[in-house]
Amino acid sequence: MKIRKFFSVFLALLLIVSLFPISSLAETNNEDLIEVEAAPLDPSMSPVGEMHKINYINQSIDGKADFIMLYTSEYAKEILVKKFWVAVQVDANNTVTKVVGQSLNGAPPVWEDEQSIAIPEGGYVLLAQDDSWATKDFRKFLAINFKEGDVIKLRKNGNVVPITEFMTGNGLNARINLQNELMYSVTEPQANISGSIQNFESDKNYKLLVNKQEVELQEDGSFEYTYELTSRTNYIDVEIYKNEILHDKKSLVVYYQDSPAEKKEVFLWVDQASNARRFQSSEDVLNMLIEAKDAGVTAVMFDVKGVEGFVSYQKNDLTNRPYVSEMIADSRSGSNPDLDLLEVFIEHGHQLGLEVHAAFNVFAEGSIAFDEFAILNDHPEWEEKVYRSEDNGEILPLRESAYGKKGALVAFVNPSNPEVRDYQLKTFEEVMKNYDVDGISLDRGRYDNYFADFSDQSRTQFEDFLAERGKTLTNWPEDVFYYEGSNRVDGPLINEWFTFRSSVINSFVEESRELVDQYNISDNRDIELSAYVGSWFESYYLNGVNWSSPTFTYDSRLQFPQESLYGEDYQQAAYSDKLDFLMIGTYQTTAQEINKYITLGNILTDGQVPLYASMALANLQDPSLQREAFQAGLNNTSGLMLFDYSQANFPVIKASIADEEYVKDYVLGISNPSEPDNPFVGDFLNINRNEDNLNVYSNTFGLSTATNKWGVEAVVDANGEVVKMVNKKQAMNWSWNVVEDNNSLIPEGGFVISALDSSGIRERRVLVGTNFDIGDKVRSAIVKGFLNYEGKTFSTVGFEYQGIVQVVGPGNAEVSVNGLAAPIQSNGEFSAQLSLQPGENQIEIVVSVDGFKTHQQVVTVFAEEPTLEQVIEFVEKASFTNKGIQQAVLARLVGAQKDFASAEELNEKGLVDQAEEARLTGIQKLEELQSFVQKHAGKHIPVEVAEELVSYIEIFTLA
Description:
Layout: H1 2-19, H2 24-29, E1 34-37, E2 51-53, E3 56-57, E4 67-72, E5 78-81, E6 86-90, E7 96-100, E8 115-118, E9 124-129, H3 138-145, E10 153-156, E11 159-161, E12 175-178, E13 183-186, E14 190-198, E15 206-210, E16 213-215, E17 222-228, E18 232-242, E19 245-256, E20 265-270, H4 272-275, H5 282-295, E21 299-305, H6 341-351, E22 355-361, E23 364-367, E24 385-387, E25 395-397, H7 402-405, E26 410-412, H8 418-434, E27 439-443, H9 456-467, E28 481-484, E29 487-490, H10 494-523, E30 528-534, H11 537-540, H12 568-572, E31 581-585, H13 591-605, E32 611-616, H14 623-636, E33 639-643, H15 650-657, E34 666-670, E35 680-682, E36 684-685, E37 693-698, E38 712-716, E39 722-726, H16 728-733, E40 751-756, H17 763-771, E41 780-784, E42 793-795, E43 799-808, E44 813-817, E45 820-822, E46 829-834, E47 839-849, E48 852-864, H18 868-877, H19 883-908, H20 912-936, H21 943-957
Parallel strand pairs: 3-4, 13-19, 20-21, 20-33, 21-22, 22-27, 27-30, 30-31, 31-32, 32-33, 36-37, 42-48
Antiparallel strand pairs: 1-2, 1-10, 4-9, 5-8, 6-7, 6-9, 10-11, 12-14, 14-17, 15-16, 15-18, 18-19, 23-26, 24-25, 28-29, 34-35, 34-41, 37-40, 38-39, 38-40, 41-43, 43-46, 44-45, 44-47, 47-48
């Protein structure tokens, strides 16, 4: 009884509290708190259901994530619900009439296909989206707590309100649907703005304005307008008024590049860790550079100081940094200690007319992931000090922090430490002093992230920075930010802190500029200074970098999240004016997003410095997507930077730069030990492995596959036998807790089969892991020539299929074409004479190496009936045993050809009777020829030639 009484009192108190206005968030943020309340689980126990904040009301989902959205009938008549989203339809009586993506007993829903649901008149729709059912509660709240028939409530600041509270009473909202992207670059002086008005009602009065200029609306609500642009950044506001009331406004940001670079440069970035060990000889470097230049590369960004602190040059008289060959981690070791990589790159690069720029991972001095530290262990005082929630408010060196012990990949040093800065500048200097480089490029010339650096040195310098501005640091580090649990809360000096760190990086770039200029003047050189940065400027302040131009002025239509930061002080920390050019990592995965960030880069640099769009080749494996992204960069910037060589497929790159469709001209085949009659089709031979590739590597590629973890590899020796498997068990059991390094040595005369899928995908890795095992006999080959035939049309006369087969690794090939053995020449060429029928024909090419089938490929060709001219050509090429008989056959064919030509001329003149007489004369000659050929078949005319010739003659005599 006492327990029951306690719960009754407790529930009553809950009910009373729930009726109080919930105003804390509204008061703090000066916003109303809008919530949806589900039906109570048990009304007899409590009339109050679960509640969740509504994030947006009647807004577009563009650019939004993790939300519950409320749509009224003023927004539209229906709303699109994407797959994996949850929606609740509610009628005018607050009754749930439909749930899309409903959960059963709290489990993830059986996700429904994309669909549109109506917004009831006087009712509404709740729409939820997030990217994690496990860790976020937007979708989960709607899916679990709402079902058809429930009566639910809306609350505003704690009070129950009707849906009309969120409606204007002006009917359907007129909204602007633009066909333009909201941010893009052009090289023409006009922007064609077009679109339509959603919820357009023909009996209402509308006015459309483009930067206050009225634009005509068509009867269906569509519009098109040509806006004259000014040089560089244009902000264009598009507004729609309905009955003199503003209903919607969209802002376009268009960058007009009125003087684009005439010559487009293409830089190839060669990452140290991924590539250094691939170059075992001077010839290896030369061959790569030849390929790169042929593809359209004009310059190389050679990573001479990797994140571990090792360098790819040997003349280190100012820093004594260790050479890259001293690295010992499995996936890093193996570089040739007798080869000065930078020297060789410069020698061959300049011979080929390529510039070679030296790139440095400036403030990165160690790899925690691979336990490689070139110099950091000798200078522990340089290590960044981090302030993270996991360390309970304690400021620690990175490697002593919880994150450093589990999760961190790269160790940074403190950019505000004078010794650190001096050492980095000496690293630049010894390269310029000892090597004929064309440029110095700063990569990771930044702070690690917003957790660093909180050392005593940084604090002292920050205090000086504040004092110059009449401000004081009272609480350290709480005046910057502090933690409530794991949540970061900004302190009163957060913007000053962000600005201070950017000023530190700005001053270092200035010192780098002075050093480069010093060498240019003293040695009469033209060394360029550049930097690589991420294109996501709106959050790059967290890394202590302002890479914009000092002439850039922030506009709220750019919608940066930390708008209060972009004042005069932060503007003074901008550093792109100190560079000769800037590379921004447009590493997004769609051409649309890449173009957006190219435009943002143009706006931020304000046309003051050449800008290069940096492409992540790993994100652009699809040739059509790569081509589209490359062309966006080439059209709207000074050129491209391709990151990086380890992901390069030069034939695809060549086509993308040339703006041409890429078509692979070979088929890679691999024999199947499990099913010998079903060989595997690989993706690429001797091309750097990317996600979703099944590749084969021979000695031509290099010493090893140069691949990293998470893939599966089968190593085949010179006898064609599998001698090693990498990550076989991991793929078969799909347990990747212990991952083997893929970087397999390629046996002399053998090859390696290497597979990798996108994260979580099993297709290629499971294929290799399941079908290959140590001891299996495996062969591989490539076949070329099919592009000359696939889908093309030929004459049925004298058709010959020609191709090329090349064995990869050991073995001898055999080829059959439509079941006929095709002799192979010493250079791999093969051919076969085939009889084609008019229409579609299938040609099957089967290749075996040492009896192991590697290809079973079908090519489709089309054939058409021959002309007499083609028959004559066939006879001229055919092998007759009697030349006199051959000449007699040709004479009759030529005679018939003249008769048919005469018939056409007579027909054109209207002499129908004479034309028919000439045609019949020609047919008679062919009939006589047919008898002549049959008479000499097997005597003076080879039987197969005679049979084919008779079949051709019948086509004309029976026509």
